[in-house]
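can u do me a favor
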């Protein structure tokens, strides 16, 4: 399944499929990914990095069906994509933005969050921005605000538009018509249910993470298990660094009061062994 998470996750759950979602894949040997699918009974793949590496997954999955979600126009997709980048990069304000990216660059988040950020970085650089060599997640140390990072991203937005259109063309070239559904959420349940052989639910199509929705990411990522885990790890690293600073600072004060007696003793001992 290729497309954005905002509709797929809730919709596919209603249709009773088990989802293999988002950053659970990372970048590993494809055979191991398929092995995990089978082990846990996953039936659907969506969102990054799966939608970037959809073709390899498709060829490794006999009889797989593909739902290609599209917007009303390329411009509509670009507007949504850019708005999302601006919104999420600006979420923490200043200096929260810089502090968060420094925690990430120092590795002071959970291992899972570290892999998720690394995956996002690789997908943005190789998938959306067409093999660019600029780092975004974490931002370079000299990038202090979200506005600075957004300005760095802007030249790559047109490349992302080209990638979006190229991916649509590629899906149409690779996937036989009988195994492909090109679907706009505005088309409603019927095309999806007919394509998957499922009854049409009697409820509206769920639509999470709409453009401008700041609560979806907070609810599922920041306040959810991934965010809480990352906060615990970050807290531990910060406390560890604080203790190290206290130790070094206390040692320096002690040495200064004793005219650096311990330091001189260590140097004299080292010289006697040379």
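np, heres the sequence
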């Amino acid at each position: 399944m290729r497309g954005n998470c905002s509709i797929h996750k809730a919709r596919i759950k209603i249709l009773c499929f088990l989802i293999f979602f988002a950053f659970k894949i990372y970048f590993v040997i494809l055979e191991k990914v398929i092995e995990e699918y089978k082990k846990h009974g996953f039936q659907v793949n969506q969102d990054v990095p799966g939608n970037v590496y959809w073709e390899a997954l498709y060829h490794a999955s006999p009889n797989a069906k593909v739902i290609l979600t599209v917007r009303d126009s390329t411009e509509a997709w670009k507007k949504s994509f850019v708005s999302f980048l601006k919104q999420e990069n600006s979420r923490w304000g200043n200096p929260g933005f810089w502090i968060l990216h420094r925690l990430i660059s120092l590795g002071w988040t959970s291992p899972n969050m570290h892999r998720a950020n690394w995956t996002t970085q690789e997908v943005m650089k190789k998938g959306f921005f067409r093999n660019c060599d600029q780092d975004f997640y974490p931002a370079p140390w000299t990038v202090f605000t979200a506005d600075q990072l957004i300005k760095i991203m802007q030249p790559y937005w047109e490349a992302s538009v080209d990638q979006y259109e190229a991916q649509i063309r590629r899906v149409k070239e690779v996937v036989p018509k009988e195994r492909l559904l090109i679907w706009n959420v505005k088309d409603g349940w019927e095309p999806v249910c007919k394509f998957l052989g499922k009854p049409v639910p009697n409820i509206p199509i769920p639509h999470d993470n709409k453009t401008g929705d700041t609560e979806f990411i907070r609810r599922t990522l920041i306040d959810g298990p991934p965010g809480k885990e990352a906060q615990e790890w970050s807290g531990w690293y910060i406390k560890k660094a604080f203790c190290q600073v206290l130790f070094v600072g206390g040692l320096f004060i002690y040495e200064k009061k004793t005219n650096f007696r311990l330091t001189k003793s260590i140097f004299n001992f080292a010289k006697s062994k040379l």
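The chain has two domains: 5-223, 236-272. hope that helps!!
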